[in-house]
Amino acid sequence: MKTEKLVCIGNSMKPTLSPLDMLDVAPYNGKKIRPGDVIVFFSNDCEHKIAHRVVSVKQGKILTKGDNNNKVDTLSVSSEKIVGKVEYFERGKKRFRIYGGAIGRAYAFLFKTKQSSGRALSYLFGNAYIKLAKTGIALRLIPCREKIRTVVFKRPHGEDIQVFMGNLLIARRRPWQDKWYVRKPFRLFVEDYIK
């Protein structure tokens, strides 16, 4: 069987994979599934495909987890539901290799370590960061060269409001949320803008 091309649409594998990345998925063809591999498999309802990293393979049970998720997926994946292994992905005009096995596990570990240290720094300096953002000093001291613009997407359940600085998404409020999500450090520059 040949490689299948799929488009990534979710955030569960960020930063490894991002929405709109084009995935090259190769069938295993009898090769061993290893922890660290990024696989594509059918969901339990068989309606859509999911790309997650293999956490463990024991007695025919394959446990997976998205690199951006905190917990291992609740249900194991059976080998017959696996479409294949993600070997490459394309983002824009660039093509990148996805490593599995020990290298893949190391990558996932490093990402989690970076994420945990970011949370620890937020805990230590979070209040000072919020107070600095509310003063508006950063916005006055560091003029923004990029134009800040708001884009509203009409969704079936409401409006998805996104704020961009140039082409970079810096803030978002989804229809089901009552609060804004603002990427760090951009709260320093947009706090008053999105109230």
Task: Enter the CATH topology name of the largest domain.
Answer: Umud Fragment, subunit A
How confident is the prediction overall: mean pLDDT?
82
Number of helices: 3
> Could you say what the CATH architecture of the largest domain is?
Ribbon
Unreliable stretches: none
Question: What is the terminal separation in angstroms?
Answer: 53 Å
Number of strands: 11
Q: Tell me the overall shape.
A: globular
Tell me the helix content. Answer: 10-25%
Q: What Rg is obtained from the alpha carbons, in whole angstroms?
A: 20 Å
CATH C-level of the largest domain:
Mainly Beta
The CATH superfamily label of the largest domain reads Umud Fragment, subunit A
SS class: alpha+beta
Beta content comes to 25-35%
Describe the protein's architecture and organization:
The chain folds into 2 domains: 4-108, Umud Fragment, subunit A (Ribbon); 136-190, no CATH class. The chain has helices at residues 101-135, 137-141, 187-190, and strands at 4-7, 22-26, 38-42, 49-58, 61-65, 82-91, 94-97, 148-155, 158-165, 168-173, 181-182. Strand 4 and strand 5 form a beta hairpin. Strands 1, 2, 3, 4, 5, 6 and 7 form a 7-stranded antiparallel beta sheet that branches. The chain has a 4-stranded antiparallel beta sheet with strand order 8-9-10-11, with no helix packed on it. It is globular and about 60 Å long. It has 3 helices and 11 strands. The protein has 195 residues and is α+β, with helices and mostly antiparallel strands.
